[in-house]
Design a protein that fits this description.
Elements lengths: L8 H19 L9 H9 L5 H8 L3 H14 L2 E3 L11 E3 L1 H25 L1 H17 L3 H6 L12
Helix pairs in contact: 1-5, 3-4, 5-6
Pfam families: MarR_2
Keywords: DNA-binding, Transcription, Transcription regulation
Protein name: MarR family winged helix-turn-helix transcriptional regulator
Length: about 160
């Protein structure tokens, strides 16, 4: 394989992230989902939550989260979860359709992993994965990833 000259690691991270996101979005074509929705879906994989709770956890405005959750609800990917202890609290959760698109996204990412693993071999693949996971911690994202509460880039939640 021919390698681009003088490409720093940070640029590689950025380019790879965009390429993987684009691959996943292509697999989800026709679903109405966009890149910013993924941050909310990831958070909801941890369990039901209100717009306010999600906004606090992700460090974004409640209005942006409410708007994006409204979009996801209109698409059928989230719905009311109910709270037996507090009827004023209105958490949402992924619906069956929401879990279905999560499966498609995971299968797509697993295919990317398999293609890279086939190209570089198991040992290099695992070593690279370890370095990238360490990089998440170095950049302060490791704990956010573990909590499924990665802050979206500015403007990612607005359509």
């Amino acid at each position: 394989m021919s390698r681009p000259p003088e490409l720093d690691l940070a640029s590689v991270f950025s380019l790879l992230g965009t390429a993987v996101d684009d691959t996943v979005l292509q697999a989800l074509a026709g679903t109405g989902l966009r890149r910013g929705h993924g941050y909310l879906v990831q958070r909801l994989l941890a369990g039901p939550a209100t717009a306010t709770e999600i906004a606090v956890e992700l460090g974004v405005s409640q209005q942006a989260v409410s708007k994006a959750l409204g979009e996801l609800a209109a698409l059928g990917y989230v719905g009311p979860a109910g709270d037996a202890d507090d009827r004023r609290r209105r958490p949402v959760a992924l619906t069956q359709a929401g879990r279905r698109v999560v499966r498609v996204a995971r299968e797509t990412r697993a295919d990317v992993d398999a293609r890279v693993r086939a190209a570089v071999g198991d040992e290099r693949f695992e070593a690279c994965r370890d370095v990238l996971l360490d990089a998440l911690d170095v950049l302060g994202l490791g704990e956010q990833v573990r909590r499924r509460a990665v802050r979206p880039p500015d403007g990612a939640l607005s359509g």
